[in-house]
Design goal:
Helices cover about 85% and strands about 0% of the residues. It is mainly alpha-helical and about 325 residues long. The protein folds into 2 domains: about 90 residues; about 180 residues. Helix 3 packs antiparallel against helix 9. The model has no long low-confidence stretch (mean pLDDT about 85).
């Protein structure tokens, strides 16, 4: 016996595949038109900042990321506002004059959405964000990498000379200080990852709570509509679920759940290294280099994962 849920899934695939083939020509035509439009408006150049400190580049990278993500959030909010404008005259039984004014506002919102998309294309926000963040991370871990290589170069060299031993000790202390600065300093990577994991988890939990509240309101309004026929109920049965869906769409664009999981794992990975460094047993030079390389590898893995996630941040109108 065929499972109706599985049959519905297969039907969904066949239906959309068929319509996808039928719409393939118009779709690629629109893509070509957008490509022409992109060439007409041009794109801004993305250049590396010369002779800049980590803090300077980091601030600019953070701002570029906030602007790009802000454009995505604004597009989601505008989409919900456009739908509200379309439903408002019916939900609130507005007069013809009020409905006409809301219609004008709806057109303005659509034009604003288009302007945001074109701004994102022209300014190359995502490319600028990636380029600045790459440069910032190179500057941030340059000292750690340099100290690792310096201490490694002393391994296997002749020991016993007082000057050589003093130099080795200085290199070891420099590497320890750099590790402590990265892991536990003012810009502690552990504290940052732990904070981000909690922040993103709270956002996801709040969105899930809103989802259940929205579903409950929509279900209650649908039941009430069986006995009390009022246009205002459209607000709860149509707009509220769309609003909740818009919030989930924004969170999906921001990759909230994936970021929460990744930051949590990153914090655990670095905490394990920090615990070994803080252990009463002395860590010899070879082990210190291994731990430092583990931290550096974790940071590089984090950067690679971040870049992969950013590559999925695609601005879309729908």
């Amino acid at each position: 016996m065929t499972n109706p849920i599985a049959a519905a899934y297969r039907g969904y695939l066949r239906c959309f595949s068929t319509f996808g083939r039928l719409c393939s020509g118009p779709y690629h035509g629109v893509c070509e038109l957008l490509g022409v439009l992109r060439n007409l408006i041009g794109t801004a150049t993305v250049d590396a900042i010369a002779d800049a400190t980590f803090l300077q580049v980091d601030r600019q990278a953070t701002r570029a990321g906030e602007v790009y993500r802000g454009v995505g959030v604004a597009i989601g909010v505008l989409g919900v506002a456009i739908l509200f404008s379309a439903l408002a005259p019916l939900m609130f039984m507005l007069s013809d004059g009020a409905a006409e004014r809301i219609g004008v506002a709806k057109v303005v919102l659509m034009l604003a959405l288009l302007a945001l998309l074109l701004y994102g294309i022209h300014s190359q926000l995502r490319s600028r964000w990636i380029a600045l963040r790459r440069q910032a991370e190179r500057l941030r871990y340059r000292g750690l990498r340099r100290n690792i290589e310096a201490l490694e170069s002393l391994e296997g060299s002749a020991q016993g000379l007082e000057s050589a031993e003093a130099h080795r000790l200085a290199m070891r202390l420099a590497l320890q200080a750099e590790l402590e600065q990265v892991l536990l300093g003012d810009s502690s990577q552990i504290a940052y990852n732990a904070h981000k994991a909690r922040q993103y988890l709270h956002i996801e939990e709040f969105a899930d709570t809103l989802g259940w509240i929205g579903f409950t309101m929509a279900l209650a309004a649908a039941v009430l509509h069986l006995f009390w026929h009022r246009p205002i109920l459209i607000f709860f049965t149509a707009f509220v679920p769309t609003l909740v869906g818009g919030i989930h769409g924004i969170n999906q664009f921001l990759r909230i759940r994936e970021l929460a999981e990744h930051h949590g794992k990153m914090a655990e990975r670095l905490i394990a290294v920090a615990a070994e460094l803080a252990a009463p047993e002395a860590v010899d030079d070879a082990r210190l280099v291994v731990l430092a390389r583990q931290v550096l590898q974790a940071l590089q893995d984090h950067d690679a994962h971040w870049e992969e996630e950013v590559a999925r941040h695609a601005l879309k109108a729908g």
